[in-house]
Design brief:
alpha+beta; 704 residues; disordered N terminus; binds dioxothiomolybdenum(VI) ion
Length: 704
């Protein structure tokens, strides 16, 4: 293992390689690729949350101009019911297979026509009738169908005696925190262009992992994976919402097979809201006890999240309770509540983002009740080994994040009493949160060819969902080969490039970099070979230490300053500052973009985002950007992010992922700042105006 930190391509702040293509419009997305003989599919979705299709009257649609036909459950190709996602079979992929409606937004038909306008008109002309059945969207921890969440990411914590430690504690916080369903809002709506040729299916698709989509599509069609070819050259944001084999590619492949033409399916924004998966709501109980000196005695975290009976899913809210603080007793109990919803999906920092809102709000409440600085409380309770696992930490620079963040933010001069800082009618407050996010590596392959002209072609099934993966991997390959970046050509975004992990779980860059580094090592042993080109291909599956015996996480400390107008309930974030420990930083420019973007998503979660459903139908009532608010520029006046020096010893190059750590923690920091400003705890997200609004004081001079 090299710990050589000499300047090379890694560490340099290079802008994105494909930036000029994107700003000139030359970059082609899944809905843009030119395709001869193309036809267009338009989805029709169910407006009810549970029931059956009684009838689909296609007579009008089939007579309309340009219409090739309509696919529905009566004539669609049959799919393999065992096909699924990371966790197993997934019924949300079984599109047009039967008349059952298991959630609102379920695609029930695809109208196919020569132009998008004709397809849309035909879709609108379909007369679909339903037999409606009562649905259940009544999410809470106490739901009668609640059951233990999956432990696929690790066992629950159960160390010490929580009740005994709580009874021994000088202060106990016992509170409930809720986060809402949130809708994915990536800039690029889901789209795919799909065609069949000689028993092979080809797609240009908007996704986060071309290889895994090819595996799932092959499973759905019960064909060899080698017959499925998925490309995703440019993707306009994913955040977890494009992790799956999406409806656009499933329906596109069915229509293309049926009509013998290339088919393009492009979702509208409204369809992205209703037919692609959400971050599930959470309902979380947290009990924390501390002694009078501010040492934690017990942490009990009981979060529930919603899922669907159609697919297993984990909103892993409990990791941080097992990592962040030492305590003699730590218990976690993750609960899953099956409802009549589309199976949820990861949304940036899945689990950790809602989970840290609850945990880090509760920690702040402990500090309040102890009348202790919340920074000091966190510093006093740092573990020396994994608090539950007992394993040593791989690299844990959380204290550096907290201290350096506090210094830059100006925390030392803070008066910790709430509601003491005022500017005219505004109440000003500051808050912080600490957080961690699981880090690691998954199997990938990479090939590097030493070309006859002295350049190197690096091929890896990576995805660039807007993060700058090409740029980062070029730097990694250049350093691994010991050459300048100008001699490295990178090919990504194609399932034909071989097995690779997708852009998800904050593990894309580490997984691809590991494979590239190993391929470069292999190639360098063969560079004496006079015959060129020469290619080295590596599969890291057997190289990964799956039981490394050390806790591997990234860390952050997020600081927020808010101004609250108690007469309108308006909360404005004035400053956000994040300090991050993410291993060795590959590209400071792109890394900063990642975590700043993550913090803005966290701000958006804190103040704006909530998926609202009509209780009568279960349909989303705010499924557009007029109703579903995401943070805009005016919401984020001053965001600063930086990295403490760090090196991940479990990675051959010292790297960890940083795609998600920016989001986790931010909502708690803002909620804690709102408490500091107003003296009122905000335990339900988003921190809506009506949750902050204070009754006017009739004695105030301007009340008359
Ligand atoms: Mo992510 S939320 O692992 O794409």
């Amino acid at each position: 293992m090299s710990t050589n930190l000499d300047p090379g391509a890694v560490g340099a702040p290079r802008p994105r390689i494909e930036g000029p293509l994107k700003v000139t419009g030359a970059a082609r997305y899944a809905a843009d690729v030119p395709m001869p003989d193309l036809v267009h599919g338009w989805m029709v979705t169910a407006p009810i949350s549970r029931g059956r299709i009684r009838d689909i009257d296609t007579s009008t649609a089939l007579g309309m101009p340009g219409v090739l036909g309509v696919l529905d459950h009566r004539n669609a190709p049959r799919l393999n019911p065992r096909a699924g996602n990371y966790f197993g079979p997934d019924g949300s992929m079984q599109l047009l297979q039967d008349d059952v409606i298991p959630y609102a937004g379920r695609p029930v038909a695809l109208a196919v026509a020569e132009t998008p306008e004709q397809a849309r008109a035909a879709a609108a002309a379909l007369r679909v009738t339903y037999d409606v059945e009562p649905h259940d969207l009544d999410f809470s921890l106490e739901h009668p169908a609640a059951r233990p969440g999956s432990t696929a990411f690790g066992p629950e914590a159960d160390t010490g005696d929580v009740d005994a430690e709580l009874s021994r504690s000088a202060v106990v916080v016992d509170e409930r925190y809720r986060t809402p369903e949130e809708s994915h809002s990536a800039l690029e709506p889901h789209a795919a262009t799909v065609w069949w040729d000689g028993g092979h299916v080809y797609a240009v698709d908007a996704n986060q992992g071309a290889f895994s989509v090819s595996e799932v599509l092959a499973a759905l069609w019960s064909i060899d994976r080698e017959r499925v070819h998925i490309r995703a050259e440019h993707v306009g944001g994913g955040f977890g919402g494009k992790g799956a084999c999406g409806p656009q590619v499933i329906l596109g492949s069915m229509a293309s097979e049926r009509f013998g033409r290339p088919v393009r399916v492009v979702m509208t924004r409204a369809q992205v809201f209703e037919a692609t998966a959400s971050r599930p709501p959470t309902d979380q109980l947290v009990r924390i006890g501390a002694d009078a000196e501010g040492l934690l005695r017990a942490i009990h975290h009981r979060p529930a999240y919603a899922l669907s009976p159609l697919a297993e899913y984990i909103e892993w809210c409990t990791e941080q309770a097992k990592i962040l603080y030492a305590a003699p007793a730590i218990r976690t109990q993750l609960t899953a509540v099956p409802l009549d919803i589309l199976p949820p999906a990861s949304m940036r920092g899945p689990g950790a983002t809602p989970g840290s809102f609850a945990l880090e709000s509760a920690i702040d409440e402990v500090a309040e009740r102890l009348d202790l600085d919340p920074l000091e409380l966190r510093l006093r309770n740092q573990p020396v080994v994994g608090p539950v696992s007992g394993l040593p930490f791989s690299s844990r620079r959380l204290v550096s994040c907290l201290r350096e963040g506090a210094r830059r933010f100006g925390w030392a001069t803070r008066d910790r009493r709430p509601r003491v800082r005022r500017e005219g009618p505004l109440l000003i407050g500051t808050g912080l949160a600490a957080t961690s996010f699981s880090a690691g590596v998954f199997p990938s392959t990479a090939s590097i060819t030493a070309e006859a002209d002295g350049t190197f072609t690096v091929s890896v099934g990576a995805s660039d969902i807007g993060t700058g993966a090409r740029t980062v991997l070029t730097a990694v390959a250049a350093d691994a080969l010991g050459v300048g970046t100008e001699r490295v050509r990178i090919r990504i975004g194609d399932s034909d490039l071989g097995m690779a992990w997708g852009a998800g779980g904050s593990r894309g860059t580490t997984s691809w970099s590991f494979a590239i580094t190993e391929a470069a090592r292999e190639l360098r042993t063969r560079l004496g070979d006079p015959a060129r080109p020469v290619t080295a291909t590596v599969d890291t599956t057997t190289m990964i230490d799956y039981q490394p015996g050390r806790e591997r996480q990234t860390y952050s400390a997020v600081f927020a300053e808010v101004a609250v107008d108690p007469s309108t309930g308006e909360v404005r974030v004035r400053r956000l500052l994040g300090m991050f420990a993410v291993g060795r930083v590959i590209n400071p420019l792109l890394a900063r973009s990642q975590v700043v973007g993550g913090m803005i998503m966290g701000l958006s979660m804190a103040l704006h985002e909530v998926t609202v459903r009509d209780p009568r139908t279960g349909r989303q009532t705010n499924g557009d950007f007029a109703g579903y608010h995401v943070a805009a520029h005016a919401d984020v006046p001053d965001v600063e992010a930086d990295f403490v020096p760090d090196y991940e010893p479990q990675d051959p190059s010292g790297f960890n992922g940083l795609g998600e750590i920016g989001t986790a923690g931010t909502a708690a920091a803002i909620a804690n700042a709102v408490w500091h400003a107003t003296g009122t705890r905000q335990r339900i997200l988003p921190i809506r105006l009506d949750r902050v609004l204070e009754p006017a004081d009739p004695g105030a001079p301007d009340a008359a």
